[in-house]
Design goal:
mainly alpha; about 65% helix; 7 helices
Amino acid sequence: MTQTPTDHTAARPPAIRTNRHAPLLRGISVFLILSLVVGGVSGLVWASVAELPSYRINSDGSASMSERGLAQVFSSDSSFCLVGLVTGLLLGLLAWWWFSRRGVLVVPIAAVGALMACLTCWWIGILVGPSGFAIRISGAKAGDLVPIDLALRSWPPVLVWPFAALVPVLVISMVRWDAAERSRQDRPRRRRRPPSAEPARSARGGTDSSAGLSPDH
């Protein structure tokens, strides 16, 4: 009675496929975690860089702000854009250096990492910066300066982060593509040698010489 050998290789392809994508998934996870850490540090920088205007408590209990302070109400948005621009460029360069061999996949990785860093920076900045403006101004005394809360007054600063991360990816891709096209065009083309006409000439010459030697009077 013959026994059929058990084929253990049939169950291996799924495991092999999983292991094949394991380095990519591990790299993406590490990159996203690093983006969160960078976003937290950026939040501390944003809280320290933003110049927040303050309300002055008058003797009658009212609060007023100078014209210069009114012009600085959106300074938190501008500083958030500046921090996001620098952080997004750094994350875009890191994503290109890390995942450029993966092709188009580097684009969503860079954008998602920058967006996660943006949200983390926003959250950390609000926690670290001044908050609870209503409570602080209600307990202030005459002559005190009460800064406004650190917050974003508009949504466009959030979009700066992913767009800044895509800038180095797109620029480097275009430069490398242009260099590849130039090298391909400058590559010497193989020239095909034209067919030689010497046999035809020699054949014609032999015919003419034989015709000249034959006595035809």
